[in-house]
Amino acid sequence: MDKNWNKLRQDFPILAEKMNGESLVYLDNAATSQKPKSVIEAITAFYQKENANIYRGTYALSAKATEAYEGVRQKAADFIGGEASEIVFTKGTTSAINLAAFGYFLWHLKAGDEIALTAAEHHSNLVPWQQVAALTGAKLVFLPLDKKGQVDLKEAEKVMSDRLRLLALAQVNNVLGTEQPVKELAALAKKRGALVLVDGAQAAGHLPVAVTKLGADFYAFSAHKMLGQTGTGVLYGRKELLDQTQPLEFGGEMIREVSKTTATFKPAPQKFEAGSQNVSGVVALGAAIDYLNAIGLDAIKDREKELGQAMAEGLKKAGARVYGQGGGIASFNLPGVHPHDLATALDAQGIAIRAGQHCAQPMMDWLGVKAVARASAAFYNNEADVEALIKGVQAAKEFFNGTR
């Protein structure tokens, strides 16, 4: 695919829209990505040509829909370096982590076992473990972060005891964009007999992922953060672990046989996909993977890092305090201006950013702030978007300081 980034912007219809009378500058990609025409068309084409309930029909259309659905399972496996039998379709990262937490770890942890986390986790990779710990008697321990929000390996090794049974952490932090040394941390955890779950919500689709090289036993990600549709996600789990994981929902095609008093279930991954599935969402994920692969994940990683660094540098020059920058993410505050007020002022100029706690209150505590503004670029953003953000922040600064 052409690496002309400005040309690629034409693949995203929403970027031509206007908001509040201004050209849209979309810089909230860490919350959700925009969708290229190929993904939108894949959804439409499914409903026009393939729509049927999967698995259940004895007719050709159902077989066609089932083939499309299962084909994406293989694509998703190839995308992260796993096997198709290790890919479970979920509603998103949150439901994927909860499936691992309550389907596997709830049954395999006991009092005194330790779960290692960081203060940099999204609530979706913190609260489930709080609940599992409360139910099992397991203990939460937190790995120290350095000034950049990255886990300090030497200090982490001191915290990891022989009681460690799970390391759960985000590959990329959603506030600072910091990429964690997952491979090295996983190796330390496995020396102690622990399993490793990786929250890949901010990583998948933004950099190359190889779950086996990372040392991930479970890996969770969402489609909507990587050009796909909302309500669709993936849980990767090593086959032997999925075989030991209990389903959390029951009914539909996950069932093998049913009597009045008992039921047996199909093997993984089908035993986790109860009821009618979001087939169009899975098809859209397949189209998103095709689009990303055509560009190349290394090129996407480099481009988003370039834009993120440009935002951070420009924000500092505009007088903002930048708390961290990694990948395409730059989180910041404007002294004397609440992040929500700043985001509202930028919205009036057609600039979309996120403001608040970003589902990461412990991260806010670690930063020593109540909230931050977050600008997050994707590869389809450009230098003009960065310039608009910087000018918008400068204008907001002048307005709130009464100098305009």
From TrEMBL:
One of its GO terms (molecular function) is pyridoxal phosphate binding. Gene3D superfamilies: Aspartate Aminotransferase, domain 1, Type I PLP-dependent aspartate aminotransferase-like (Major domain). Keywords: Pyridoxal phosphate, Transferase. GO terms for biological process: cysteine metabolic process. It catalyses: (sulfur carrier)-H + L-cysteine = (sulfur carrier)-SH + L-alanine. The keyword Transferase applies. Its cofactor is pyridoxal 5'-phosphate. Residues 25-389 form the Aminotransferase class V domain. Its EC number is 2.8.1.7. Coiled coil: none annotated. It is an enzyme of class 2 (transferase). Belongs to the class-V pyridoxal-phosphate-dependent aminotransferase family. Csd subfamily. PANTHER family: CYSTEINE DESULFURASE, CYSTEINE DESULFURASE 1, CHLOROPLASTIC. This is cysteine desulfurase.
